[in-house]
Amino acid sequence: IAPVMVTSTTNTGLALVNTSDRNMPITLTLIGPNAVHLGDTDLSLPPGNQTAMFINNFFPDQVWGESFYGLVEVETDIEGMVGLALLQSDGVLTSVPVIPLPRTIGN
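Predicted structure:
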């Protein structure tokens, strides 16, 4: 899970890498203020591949408004995903903490 901020001068980037030797199905879930579920995006990463985009490209149908503050949850059943979030503001990139969440029993 990682924080997301989108404004007129700021955007959040997300990079994902599949370090496994298997195809990796991934679900991104956008969570808005007050923990409101705003949408999901499914993608698939082949073994050894990566993808990186700004969050608004992962969720092109989302209406961001003047400012958006929320979270993105990244989920896969395959071990070997590495994630990195970056905050771009006025041309400056800053890394953003990505917090791994433990799986609950039965998921």
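Summary: The beta strands are 2-7, 10-18, 24-31, 37-45, 50-54, 67-75, 81-89, 92-96.
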